[in-house]
Amino acid sequence: MHPTSTPSNLSLPPMKDLTTENITENVHIVNSQCRDPRLRYLLNRIVSHLHDFCLETRLSTEEWNTGIQFLTEIGQISDDLRHEMILLSDTLGVSSLVDSINHPRQPPATEGTVLGPFHTHDAADMDHGSVLHSDPDATPLFVLASVKDTRGNPISDVKVDVWEGDSKGFYDVQNPNREGPDGRGVLRSDENGEFYFQAIVPVPYPIPMDGPVGKMLKALGRHPNRPGHVHFMLDKPGWDILITALYPRGDPYETSDPVFGVKESLVVDLSTVEDEEMAKKYGVKIGTKLLRHDFVLLTEQEARELRKRNAIEAMEKQGRKVVFHDGLPVPADE
Description:
alpha+beta; oxidoreductase; 29% helix; 1_2-HQD/HQD
């Protein structure tokens, strides 16, 4: 045991005789010794909300044990390619909420959305115009995009990580015989802020239903089908990272995404490559489906200022003044 955590070295306020009415206060007393103000604040709110949930619902021992087993199974089924905890966070709307808090956007900046459980770190670097998929049954899609700042200036050398499922609605990591990345790649925006590649028209697909999260959705009577989309992660030092996706308009699941990732600004219209000059320039066939989009990034400073302003407003609505610890908000009275 670390010498600073031995009972003889602690100066704890006296705990009260435990009851359902005061156990929350007693836990706060013990946790109040934490020297990190942000961690102390987080644990205070987690304990308060969790205890309130137990008291409000009169949670049974059987239900609590079921919850513990549920989380245990999520850990057991997860590995480097399957991220069941991310899937749980997504299907409860937490991922979307946390992203919106930590990467706030205001027009004209592109809105973010969920990372999802299928991102990997083994995608190969690709040249502009590269083909993302080896799927012969898919409908080809040419993606022509740009990256700009909020003033409309192009941003060069942005790392653009792209991934999507195949024409059957499966990602490469769901293939038990996966030998390497497919349907994913990494590009860099050029001096004009442009990047382009050949993908496929995305189709709807079910999120994995063979694990504990799938059991949860079935118990809740929820469908598992995500609308078709293409994922993008745009990253460059000095700029706030953008994790987002584009959703072709008209998908039957556009308004009922089980991971709450669809935002109206991310719903896009597909067109067709009809101009011979464009087809020749980019090496695509006339008639190929076309997705054009301009991504707009915030600088880290712009995002930091917006995040701080939002935090102050949120705390003020709670009737509390705020101070910041390592850039994160803490009530001034904590």
